[in-house]
């Protein structure tokens, strides 16, 4: 994961950033993780194997992306019991409005920090 503060700084240099780029900067995630999130929105309840097939990526890479997305709160994991015994994990992307709210909160927090630093400066 990249440093979200550095992402915010880079984001400020772009006149009209795309939603995906904003998401990457705010959450400190990579483009492949953003693609995983959006694919999961289309395929809720997918397993790592199903997502790997849909994304045409290696399972281990998809698993790492999902772990990162779970850490950021963009994806939730549920355990489903299998009929023959055992279990499998299914993944669900949080709805876009919830992700947007998290993004707004992160940007507001960052802006508040910057405003505080500005106010601290002076004689």
Description:
- By secondary structure, the protein is mainly alpha-helical.
- The chain has one domain: Orthogonal Bundle (Arc Repressor Mutant, subunit A).
- It is built from 6 helices and 2 strands, in the order αααααββα.
- It has helices at residues 4-12, 19-27, 31-42, 48-55, 59-72, 96-120, and strands spanning 75-81, 87-93.
- Strands 1-2 form a two-stranded antiparallel ribbon.
- α1 (4-12) packs antiparallel against α2 (19-27), α3 (31-42) packs across α5 and α4 (48-55) packs across α5 (59-72).
- The longest helix is centred in the C-terminal third of the chain and has 25 residues, at 96-120.
- The N and C termini lie far apart (38 Å).
- 20% of the residues are buried.
- The model has no long low-confidence stretch (mean pLDDT 89).
- This is Putative DNA binding protein.
- Residues 24-95 form the Transcription regulator TrmB N-terminal domain.
- InterPro entries: ArsR-like_HTH (IPR011991), Tscrpt_reg_TrmB_N (IPR002831), WH-like_DNA-bd_sf (IPR036388), WH_DNA-bd_sf (IPR036390).
């Amino acid at each position: 994961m990249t440093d979200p503060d550095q992402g915010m700084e880079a984001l400020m240099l772009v006149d009209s950033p795309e939603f995906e780029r904003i998401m990457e900067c705010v959450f400190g995630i990579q483009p492949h993780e953003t693609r995983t999130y959006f694919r999961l929105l289309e395929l809720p309840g997918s397993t790592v194997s199903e997502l790997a097939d849909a994304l045409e990526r290696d399972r281990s890479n998809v698993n790492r992306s999902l772990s990162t997305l779970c850490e950021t709160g963009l994806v939730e994991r549920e355990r489903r019991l299998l009929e023959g015994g055992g279990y499998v994990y299914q993944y669900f992307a949080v709805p876009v409005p919830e992700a947007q709210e998290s993004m707004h909160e992160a940007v507001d927090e960052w802006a508040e920090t910057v405003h505080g630093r500005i106010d601290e400066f002076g004689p």
